[in-house]
Design goal:
It contains 7 helices and 4 strands. It is an alpha+beta fold. The protein has a domain of about 70 residues. Helix 3 packs across helix 4, helix 4 runs antiparallel to helix 5 and helix 6 packs across helix 7. Bound molecules: zinc ion. It comes from uncultured Sulfurovum sp.
């Protein structure tokens, strides 16, 4: 989950109007707020669910860009009450609390809390549960997470190739530009890529200016 900065404030009556999807596409950089897949196929997700929060059904701040798979997998009770509330990526830099790492040997995604915060701890734990369900299929019958992990595997492999090339190359400038794009919030699965950098002291030294740390 990456930090999303909403810049638009569309005028609309109902959340399913085109002006809403057009604005969400721009504000979320075509990126699912839960799994970080960049996709044009998305659904408008109500962060606070429609059934429990009817007054927020048509509030732009409550509408999120979500891929169809995540919208299905996300537990229906998410954000129904404070017990199952997750972090709001439009308010909080989730990445600074939760690390995502691809474990190739075990073919799973490690979702780990890296920082504690008294006020946010319950939300952090709930977010980790939802992400484990999405990435690892925990407590879910859906098999789409296998395809998602394959996709992440291939994106990370290509990113690691670029890092290799950077370390071996004498002309680093061109490859730095490519790595910079990968580390940007707009790129797919950027949390994974940015944590690869943070976990490597040498790379962190070189690239920390592009990950905002
Ligand atoms: Zn998704």
């Amino acid at each position: 989950m990456v930090k999303v900065n909403r810049r638009l404030n569309p005028a609309f009556d109902k959340y399913n109007e085109i002006s809403v999807s057009d604005s969400l596409r721009i504000d979320f950089n075509k990126k699912c707020y839960l799994c970080e897949e960049v996709t044009r196929h998305f659904e408008v997700d109500h962060f606070y669910p429609q059934l429990a929060y009817s007054h927020l059904v048509n509030e732009y701040e409550n509408l999120f860009y979500c891929c169809q798979k995540c919208n299905k997998i996300k537990p229906k009770k998410t954000n129904i009450s404070s017990d199952n509330e997750i972090l709001n990526c439009c308010d909080i830099d989730v990445e600074s609390y939760i690390k995502l790492k691809l474990n190739i040997q075990e073919c799973k995604i490690e979702v780990e809390q890296v920082k504690s915060n008294l006020v946010l701890d319950i939300k952090i734990r709930n977010t980790i549960k939802v992400l484990n369900r999405i990435y690892n299929g925990e407590n879910s019958k859906s098999t789409s997470c296998e395809d998602l992990r394959d996709e992440i595997k291939s994106v990370i492999a290509s990113f690691r190739k670029k890092l290799d090339k950077y370390e071996k190359s004498k002309l680093k400038r061109a490859i730095v530009e490519e790595i910079k794009e990968d580390l940007d919030n707009t790129s797919s699965y950027s949390t994974f890529k940015r944590w690869i950098i943070r976990d490597n002291p040498n790379l962190n030294q070189q690239f920390k200016q592009y990950i905002g740390d």
